[in-house]
UniProtKB/TrEMBL annotation:
Domain of life: Eukaryota
Keyword set includes Transport: yes
Membrane topology value: Multi-pass membrane protein
Localization, UniProt: Membrane
Keywords, in A-Z order: Membrane, Symport, Transmembrane, Transmembrane helix, Transport
Pfam families named in the record: SBF
Transmembrane segments: 41-58, 70-93, 99-122, 129-149, 169-189, 201-223, 235-261
Family: Belongs to the bile acid:sodium symporter (BASS) (TC 2.A.28) family.
Official protein name in the record: Oidioi.mRNA.OKI2018_I69.chr2.g4407.t1.cds
Source organism of the structure: Oikopleura dioica (Tunicate)
Length: 302
């Protein structure tokens, strides 16, 4: 797997691909694995995973966070203002092409996704807050993510027009919101009709199965695409820094907002686990949505 200084153009990529085909006698490792194993597999695993997360979510607690949305508002500010601005700073500091910049900006302005919820679940964080923030960010992403993407041609001085694949955005976000709402509703039914134990067991089994399946899909995806993946030094730096910077900024802002509210005489408290949850939700983006949009936008180029 070569690491490029800058993203190759179509000619350079096809030349490298031809050399690989010669080296492996016309058949690249993993080429016999259908694309649907990774693409559709990740999609449906996300759906089941969000159902599992919903089974562990208390709808009453979610409504409390919506009524007093300090935590979610801090998260949304970080998700759709600070993170995109960090991506813009990176784009202005590095020499990056339009479509490489597009992916970087996508990760900067994408909403939260299932992976962040699963991380919070196993870390013992506030899953109710995590799911609430994920749903709110998914709704806002329908407008804010396409808006931020229009900045990319300006940042890289390109005349390429970016056509936003709204269908892919809507489908991916629905795969996050709908299963989580269904799972939360089942959680409420379990408490009301006294089958909460069955709900908890289902939650544990589905969460474990989802995690193992995601790991398997990740390994399969690496094996299938590692030879032809376009990876640059800029991408590696950005991927290494973004989650940690995003987490640090969001957690620090959360602490600061609570401190200011108390200084104003308001009796408001957020637990340490909730600060942690806000940080993780900001740092871990909806990679499934980013991948879906990227595949659509690249389909006419490579």
């Amino acid at each position: 797997m070569p690491i490029y200084a800058t993203a190759p153009n179509r000619t350079e990529f096809m030349l490298n691909l031809q050399q690989l085909m010669i080296k492996y006698n016309g058949t690249l490792p993993g080429s016999d694995i259908p694309n649907s194993v990774v693409g559709d597999g990740a999609f449906w695993t996300l759906v089941i995973g969000m159902l599992a997360m919903g089974l562990a979510t208390d709808p009453h607690q979610m409504f409390k966070y919506i009524k007093k949305p300090v935590g979610p508002l801090v998260g949304m500010l970080c998700q759709f203002v600070i993170m995109p601005c960090l991506a813009m700073i990176f784009l202005s500091a590095a020499k990056i092409g339009t479509y490489e910049a597009l992916v970087i900006m996508l990760y900067g302005c994408a909403p939260g996704g299932g992976i962040s919820n699963i991380i919070i679940y196993y870390m013992g964080g506030d899953l109710d807050l995590s799911i609430t923030m994920t749903m709110l960010s998914c709704v806002l992403a329908l407008g804010l993510t396409p808006a931020w993407l229009q900045v990319v041609p300006v940042m890289v001085d390109s005349e390429d027009a970016i056509k936003i694949p709204f269908a892919e955005i809507g489908t991916t976000l629905a795969a996050v919101i709908v299963p989580a709402l269904i799972g939360s509703f089942i959680n409420w039914l379990g408490k009301r009709y006294k089958f909460s134990k069955a709900v908890r067991i289902s939650n544990i089994l589905l969460a474990a199965g989802t995690t193992l399946t995601l790991i398997a899909i990740l390994i399969i995806g690496i094996y299938k695409y590692y030879l032809t993946a376009i990876i640059t030094v800029s991408q590696l730096v950005y991927a290494a820094l973004l989650p940690y910077v995003g987490f640090a900024v969001a957690a620090t802002m959360s602490f600061s907002v609570v401190w200011l509210i108390r200084k104003c005489g308001k009796n408001f408290k957020i637990e340490a686990l909730q600060h942690l949850t806000i940080g993780v939700e900001t740092a871990v983006q909806n990679g499934r949505m980013v991948n879906a949009i990227t595949l659509v936008l690249y389909s006419g180029i490579i």
